[in-house]
Design a protein that fits this description.
It contains eleven helices and twelve strands. The chain is of the alpha/beta class. An eight-stranded parallel sheet has the order 3-12-11-10-9-8-5-4. The protein has a two-stranded antiparallel ribbon with strand order 1-2. The longest helix is centred in the middle third of the chain and has 21 residues. 51% of the residues are buried.
């Protein structure tokens, strides 16, 4: 028996073995604060690959040092980081999974403490923090006021995304995802709540989308035509006056015209106290709308935790791919378990684990 969730998907020159992928999930585990991935990342990410995921996407990697969410995040702004990713990518490939990396700049939400720290908010300079930047000098609730980016600074950000994408290709990654969601820098430009500029990067939706589209252009020029580029969106800010689904549909349409292949559709993150009706699959309708109206393939996310739920999303055309986070943390072999529950025979269960073969 075949199921849509376990059908391969081809994006440009890349074919991925199935449509159940691992979301980028920050680990905040770089103790040296140098952005270099560690053995933790190899074991963490490698477990998902041997567990049958189609693609494993590395957590938000800073394209510049000041783009990290915390001082303990990975980065891909230098060659040492690139080289440290190579054995991780090689292991993912050896297990049959595609390897992706999320390229990120946190903007005004950078330089923060790790989530499990007793103190929250902005890390001061004396503790390894730094001056944050943003489209406008408007602070995220509870964080330090950022410095407003100059026009030339914005162009430099696009070049940083491109340089990071080049290093991702050199490290062997199969796809990159530009993070324009969850209240980070490119999302900050898109939302009128955080973008109060009056120049070519503010005001109209076209202007607010400019930083993202210039970054896509720069990345596409760097990686070539055969390499997949994904963009993660927050489809709505969930508050009046914020980014709307209709606006996201238009920006996703522009992103496709500029060379993006998939829209990874999430929501929220730019307002600290937005009222969000959370529940299983609560973000899937946004992915479905973007897919239907923007003419771009989509990835659905958000409390997708069972095989039948994931299968229904793909089989009914709500999205082309599902990305799963928490369920993979609970069970790194969730993809193999999903195949067993759906009655799908796959040929990539590790032989070392056959004595404990998962059956429905």
């Amino acid at each position: 028996m075949t199921h849509a969730l376990f059908e391969p998907i081809t994006i440009r020159d890349l074919t991925v073995r199935n449509r159940i992928w691992v979301s980028p999930m920050c680990q905040y585990s770089v103790e040296q604060q140098d952005g270099v991935p560690t053995p933790w990342h190899l074991v963490h990410l490698g477990g998902f690959a041997k567990g049958g995921a189609g693609a494993v996407v590395v957590e938000a990697a800073g394209v510049v040092p000041e783009g990290r969410i915390t001082p303990h995040d990975v980065g891909i702004w230098n060659d040492e980081q690139r080289d440290a990713f190579r054995p991780i990518v090689d292991f993912l490939h050896a297990q049959g999974a595609a390897a992706g990396i999320q390229l990120a700049h946190a903007g005004r939400k950078a330089s923060t403490y790790r989530p499990w720290n007793d103190v929250q908010g902005t890390v001061p300079d004396a503790e390894g923090g730094w001056q944050t930047v943003a489209p406008s000098a408007v602070a995220f609730d509870g964080y330090a006021v950022p410095r407003e980016l100059e026009t030339e600074d914005i162009r430099v950000v696009a070049l940083a995304f491109a340089a990071a994408a080049r290093r991702a290709v050199e490290a062997g990654f199969d796809l990159v995802e530009l993070h324009a969601a969850h209240g980070y820098l490119l999302h900050q430009f898109l939302s009128p709540l955080s973008n109060h500029r009056t120049d070519a990067y503010g005001g109209s939706l076209e202007n607010r989308a400019r930083a993202l589209l210039e970054s896509i252009d720069a990345v596409r020029a760097e990686v070539g035509e055969g390499f997949p580029v994904v963009v993660r969106f927050s489809a709505t800010d969930w508050v009046d006056g914020g980014l709307t689904l209709d606006e996201t549909v238009q920006v996703a349409r522009w992103a496709a015209e500029h060379g993006a292949d998939l829209a990874d559709v999430s929501t929220g993150g730019n307002v600290a106290k937005a009222s969000i009706p959370v529940g299983p699959g609560y973000q899937v309708p946004f992915a479905e709308t973007v897919r239907r109206e923007a003419g771009i393939g989509t990835i659905a996310v958000g409390m997708i935790s069972t095989a039948f739920q994931a299968e229904q999303i793909v089989a009914t055309g709500q999205a082309d791919v599902v990305m799963v986070g928490r369920e993979f943390l609970r069970d790194p072999s969730f993809a193999l378990r999903a195949a067993a529950e759906l009655g799908v025979a796959v040929d990539y269960e590790p032989q070392q684990y056959h004595r404990a073969r998962v059956t429905a």
